[in-house]
Give the backbone structure.
Amino acid sequence: MEGYSEKVMDHFFNPRNVGTIEDADAIGEVGNAKCGDIMKMYMKIKDDIIVDVKFQTFGCGAAVATSSMVTELIKGKTVDEALEVTNTEVAEALDGLPPIKMHCSNLAESAVKSAIEDYRKKQNGEKK
Ligand code: FES
């Protein structure tokens, strides 16, 4: 597996936070138009803070590694802070991705955004 950093390999072979959250406050689901891979992200949110996050992906190794890393980056953050995490930051945290795999990191960023959108929708629904 040439071209992958040790961190990418580590997060691929030992992905953090894989799975589902049964009573999730937010669920995001996204697909990557370039390759057809999909990702689902589950969040437990208390007082706007992401207290737990899990993901499932039907995707390539880079998608697994970036999702794993993004869950570590956003856990404990507020939803607003999590929205600011970009795929470039995720890739940097992994010591880089081969350029042709950069699109895979979009999946992780979009899954976070999609889950938070779901959270906001549910929140608004509850208030009214
Ligand atoms: Fe599909 Fe990487 S090839 S996410």
Residues 102-127 form the longest helix (26 residues). Strands lie at 26-31, 38-46, 49-58.
